[in-house]
Amino acid sequence: MQYKTHLVTSLVITAPLLYANHEWTLVNIGGLALGALLPDIDEESSYIGKRTFFISRFINKLFGHRGLTHWLITWLILSLILFALFHNWFVIALSIGYLLHLCEDRFSVSGLHWLMPFSNKRFAFPSSSMVVYRTGSLKELGFFFAMVVILFTEMHYMNDQLGPTSSVIYRRVEYMIVHSLVEIFKFKHL
Ligand SMILES: [Zn+2]
Known about the structure:
By secondary structure, the protein is mostly helical. The chain has one domain (3-185). It is built from 7 helices and no strands. The chain has helices spanning 3-20, 26-37, 53-63, 72-85, 89-106, 138-162, 164-185. The radius of gyration is 17 Å and the shape is globular. The site of zinc ion has 5 residues, from helix 5. Zinc ion (ZN) is lined by residues 39-40, 70, 101, 105.
């Protein structure tokens, strides 16, 4: 899944939770976004990988893509350490974003080795399944746009609490939409 789909999907799922707790703030959304992107630090060409070059290369060399950073135990240990050190919604949002990333990757064609290092079992749906997507495919793009519509609908109803948060999110999502449209016209997805 591409970074923009991870971001928007995680926002759609988590926005009601943050909003209901009066925690729909830029800082917490930053935590969610960080968590939603962090697992792909193991891929140099990913959004976060390009911005953490040496760390990304190091992790990739040792564990490969969808290795250590995509194990459930890594999410659990990272969350426990962060919760022990900090008690705030930034950490909660980061942990949720991270877990959602793993769940979202679970629906990709290649699936995930969720239970590593305890089990080598690969969790993946059959490639013919309706719910499975290939990263960067038109199917994923369609899903991204569906999530954008839901996110904007949610934000429409949450507007009174958002303040400056909304314009930042709108700008970011608009950028991702334009970027996706450019990719379509370049036939990058075909
Ligand atoms: Zn991933």
